Amino acid sequence: MEPLGATTVFLVICISCLLFLSVWRKMSGSGKLPPGPIAFPIIGNILQVCSWPCHLTPFATYGPIFTIYLGSERIVVLYGYEIVKEALIGLGDEFSGRGSMPIFEKSSKGRGIVFSNGERWKQLRRFALTNLRNFGMGKKSIEERIQEETRFLLERLRNTHGRPFDPILFLNHSVSNVICSIVFGDRFDYEDKKFVTLINLLDEDSKLQRSPWTAVCLELYNFFPTLMDYIPGPHQGIFKNSLEFRKFVLERVKMHKESLDANCPRDFIDAFLIKMEEQKHVQSEFNVESMVNSTIELFVAGTGTTSTTLRYGLLILLKYPEIEEKVHEEIDHVIGQSRSPCMADRSQMPYTDAVVHEIQRFITLVPLGVPRAVTRDVNLKQYVIPKVSSQCVCEGSSYFTFFSF
Asked: What is the distance between the alpha carbons of residues 302 and 136, in angstroms, rounded to a whole number?
C-alpha cells in the first residue's frame, strides 16, 4: 500500500504543479492586460460570476476595463457606455469578429448569420437585412403583419372572459407568428401542434440556459467537447432541441422547393433558395447549411427578444401604475378605441415612445451574449487586447463587452 500511496501523492503534486504553471504562464503574459480579481485554478472566476444575479457588476470596482477568467479562458471586459462606444463604434472593424466556441460550433458548424465569420458573415448578414427589408415593404408590410397578429391576440385575450391568466404563452405565440410569416411565409394557428412544439422547445431552451448547472456544463464542453458529447447533462437537452428545430426547418424547405416560383418569392426561405440556384455553379456561402441555420436564428431571435421585452414591459407598468396611466391617456388621445395603432402615430406619442425606450434600457434582455472577436491586436486605453475570441453582453443600463483568449 505504501508504494501506491507514494505514487498517488507524487501524481497529485505533479498535476498541481502543472495547473499552477499553466495559470502562472497566462498571468505572467498579461502585463499589458487590465487588472482583475484573483482567479482559482481550473475554474477561474466562474463561481464569482454565477453567484451574482447581476453577473459582472461586482467586478466593476476594477474600472471600465478589467480581466476575469471563465475556466482557463482569459476574458477582457469593457464596462460602461463610453468605453463600449469607443470599442464597438470607434473601432468597429477591429471588434467585428466572432469568437470560436465548440458548444456553438457543434450546432451551427460556423454557418448562419450569428456564428459565422469574415466574408461569410458579411454576405449572409447583407442578404438577410436586404430581404427582411424587402418583405417588410412587399404585398404585406411588417406593420400589417403585426396589426393582423394583434387582432388574433386581442381575440384570445377576450376569450379569457376576465379570468386570471399567464400572458407569457400568449405573447410568445403572437410575436413568433410575426417572424414566422416573414421567414416561413405564413402564420400558424395557436393550436397547431408543430407550432406549439416549436414554442415549447424555445421555452425549454430558455429554462435550461438560466440554470447555473447548464453554464458549468457548457463551459466544460468548451474545454472537453469530445468527452462531453458522451456525458449526460443539460447541454444534451440543448443539442436535442437544436436538432428538432433543424428537422422542422428542413420540412419547410422541402415544401418550399415543391411550390417555388422564382419570380415571386414569398418569404426568406424562398429568397434563399433562389439565391442558391443563382450561385450553384460558383463557390458560394449560400447553401443548405447556411439557410437552415440562418432561418433558425431569425426565428429564435425574432421570438425570444421581443416577447421577453413585452413581458418585462407589462411587469414594469404593473409596478409603476402612474406611468401606465399616462401611457393609457396618450393612447386614448392619439389612437382612440376604434382603430389599431400604426407607425405614423409614433411622432405624436412622445411619452409612450420614451417609455418603450426606457423599458428596453432598463431590462437585462440578453445577460450573456454570443462570442465576439477582435480581428487584430487592439490598443484600448493603456492596454492591449490580442487577436482572440470574445463575447459581448449588455446588462440593464450598463454595458459589458468580453474578449476571451
From this structure: 14
Spatial distance between the Cα atoms of 392 and 398, rounded to a whole number of angstroms? 12
pTM, full prediction: 0.76
d(CA 373, CA 118): 11
What's the Cα-to-Cα distance from 146 to each of 90, 219, 341, rounded to whole Å?
A: 35, 38, 10
Rounded to 10 degrees, the C-alpha dihedral 161/341/354/308 comes to 50
| Homologous superfamily, domain 113-319 | Cytochrome P450 (1.10.630.10)
| Bridge partners, residue 40, by sequence | 44
Mean per-residue pLDDT, 364-369: 66
> Which pLDDT belongs to residue 97?
77
Contact 137, 276 (CB under 8 A): no
**End-to-end distance of the chain based on CA atoms, in angstroms?**
43
The domain segmentation of the chain, as residue ranges, is: 50-100+371-405, 113-319, 320-367
Given this model, what pLDDT does residue 394 score?
Answer: 35
Q: Give residue 87's pLDDT.
A: 84
The span from the CA of 98 to the CA of 124, in Å, is 14
Classify each residue of 257-270 as buried b or exposed e, where b means 16 or more C-beta atoms within 10 Å of its C-beta. Answer: eeebeeeebbbbbb
Report the pLDDT averaged over residues 4-21: 63
Nearest to 270 by CA among 281, 254, 285, 282: 254
Q: Is 190's pLDDT higher than 80?
A: yes
Give residue-wise pLDDT tens across range 52-88. Answer: 555 566 677 787 888 887 766 777 888 778 888 888 8
